[in-house]
Write a structure and sequence with these properties.
The structure is a single chain. The chain has a nine-stranded parallel beta sheet with strand order 5-4-3-2-1-9-8-7-6. It is an alpha/beta fold. Helix content is about 50%, strand content about 15%. Helix 7 links the parallel strand 4 and strand 5. The two termini are about 25 Å apart. It has a single domain, classed as Aldolase class I (TIM Barrel), CATH 3.20.20.70. Its EC number is 4.2.1.20.
């Protein structure tokens, strides 16, 4: 199911969509399935599943910690597809966020087919731009998979237009320059970037990097179509790693707070 369905539903309800991220295999494969389904039940409209990779491009220390735990636990690409299948079965659009190298190593067409077979909506590819991804664009177009590329405050208007022309599902706008991580304040660069992006496309624009609570989600939902949250979810699990039930309860509470935020714009 494409993410466009979730964005259309949110728009009909006059709110932004809540997009939640966790890496597959953290704290374990089964644990990540349980955590992600908890997030769905508590109000996430779209789920991003991170493919653990040893050489991250955007990941800040919080997500790096979780990804390293997943890698130490032996998680593999096939495990990622297992998590996708379980989460997609809830009916919520489910994306994989991954560095390009694991896709290339597996084979672009094979990766795309396995993603489709698992019920995945598409890919977020933070470290490759459309002009360097013709194989993925072809494989995704053949299967109607979402192609979510990133735009940043440093992107020129020409680069934004080139990028959005190849996106399907939504456009991922990175609100801050630098790596991921929950922040005390959301970036003042986000709203202008969303405005510039909207000049080039009718696709929804989701904003990521930095949101950690409902108040920040409401602030971002005032101008974005989607609010993307990752590090705050990961931190919640890390902070409660010794008690699985407490971790899930805290995760549900955070999700509910964020879901209320995207509805309070």
């Amino acid at each position: 199911m494409s993410t466009s369905v979730a964005f259309e539903k949110a728009k009909a309800e006059d709110r932004a969509a809540l997009v939640g991220y966790l890496p597959a295999g953290f704290p374990s494969v089964e644990g990540s399935i349980e955590a992600l389904t908890t997030m769905v039940e508590a109000g996430c409209d779209i789920i991003e599943i991170g493919l653990p990779y040893s050489d991250p491009v955007m990941d800040g220390p919080t997500i790096q910690d979780a990804v390293q735990q997943a890698l130490d636990g032996g998680v593999r690409v096939d495990d990622v597809f297992r998590v996708v299948e379980a989460v997609a079965a809830t009916g919520v659009p489910t994306l994989v966020m991954t560095s390009w190298n694991p896709i290339e190593r597996r084979g672009v067409d094979r990766f795309a087919q396995q993603l489709q077979d698992a019920g995945g909506a598409g890919l977020i590819t933070p470290d490759i731009t459309p002009d360097f991804a013709p194989e993925w664009i072809e494989a995704a177009d053949a299967r109607d998979l979402d192609k979510v590329f990133l735009v940043a405050p440093s992107s020129t208007d020409e680069r934004i237009a080139m990028t959005t022309a190849q996106c399907r599902g939504f456009v991922y706008a990175t609100a801050v320059m630098g790596v991921t991580g929950a922040r005390a304040k959301t970036s003042e660069l986000a709203a202008p970037l969303v405005a510039r992006t909207r000049q080039t496309t009718d696709l929804p624009v989701g904003v990521g990097l930095g949101v950690s609570n409902g108040a920040q989600a409401a602030e971002m939902a005032a101008y974005a179509d989607g609010v993307i949250v990752g590090s705050a979810f990961v931190r919640t699990l890390l902070d409660n790693r010794s008690d699985e039930q407490a971790a899930l309860k805290a995760l549900a509470h955070l999700t509910e707070d964020l879901a209320a935020g995207v509805r309070a714009r």
